[in-house]
Automatic annotation (TrEMBL):
Protein name per UniProt: Transmembrane protein
Membrane keyword on record: yes
Keywords: Membrane, Transmembrane, Transmembrane helix
Annotated transmembrane regions: 26-49, 61-80, 124-144, 150-168, 189-206
Keyword Transmembrane: yes
UniProt superkingdom: Bacteria
Natural source organism: Tahibacter amnicola
Length: 238
């Protein structure tokens, strides 16, 4: 006699998967590695775009964030693909100092890289430091939130992969229209959108206050662009 179908409870199955992940895997460490690799991809993308002539920070930084997000989704896919065999076996179980450039004066006077003969330069530098710190702090908080909630996110993605593959047999009440990518974008897309917006605003302000700067580092040091490496004209200088 065949077993009668069981009713599927998504939240309960996600909770079961989460307990299993925390028991036999390292979900937060896994997510930390993925977030770290994602950040590295973003920095590399920004550097390559700068070398290609995209000097406008308010354009380059959001684009780099978008590329990094694509890499993040790819890393999630790799993790899910690598864990498919394990997840199938578990179904139905009851387990649980940058050097500053110097500026020469007309009569041999030499000033610091921060001194441009304008009393407002220190104020601009301080303001840039503040917005840069705020941007970094916000990005760090959002990254930490992804790492802390990794067990729940990864467990939900595993359930979606199992549902899409028809791996839950003899159960009722299943919505098979969902997919892991939709869940991942719904849970993490807004985080990367916020990061992209913050970087765009930060880059735009930095480039407005220090025309010619093509990175936050150049803006913080009030460094002119080196000859022979000029990218796009400052889009906010008008």
């Amino acid at each position: 006699m065949q077993d009668s179908p069981r009713t599927f409870n998504r939240e309960r199955e996600i909770a079961r998967r989460r307990k299993l992940l925390e028991k036999v895997h390292w979900p937060r460490l896994t997510m930390f590695l993925m977030v770290s690799l994602t950040g590295a991809v973003g920095f590399l993308a920004s550097y390559l775009m700068l070398r290609a002539g995209v000097g406008a920070m308010w354009i380059r930084y959001p684009l780099a964030t978008g590329i990094a997000y694509g890499a993040f989704l790819f890393f999630l896919w790799c993790w899910l693909h690598a864990g498919n065999s394990e997840s199938e076996a578990d179904i139905g179980d009851d387990i649980e100092p940058v050097e500053r450039e110097r500026k020469s004066g007309s009569s041999g006077d030499i000033g610091s890289g921060w001194d441009f003969g304008n009393a407002g330069d220190d104020g601009i530098a301080l303001f840039l430091v503040i917005i840069a710190v705020l941007a970094l702090a916000t990005g760090a908080v959002l990254a930490i939130s992804v790492i802390v909630t990794a067990p729940a996110l990864l467990a939900e993605l595993l359930v979606d992969v199992a549902l899409a593959g028809g791996l839950y047999k003899r159960v009722r009440g299943i919505d098979r229209h969902g997919n892991w990518l939709g869940t991942a974008v719904r849970r993490t897309g807004w985080i990367f959108a916020v990061v992209a917006l913050i970087l765009a605003i930060t880059g735009g302000i930095a480039q407005k206050l220090t025309p010619g700067a093509q990175s936050i580092g150049q803006a913080l040091h009030l460094r002119p662009v080196e000859p022979g490496f000029e990218g796009s004209p400052d889009p906010l200088s008008d």
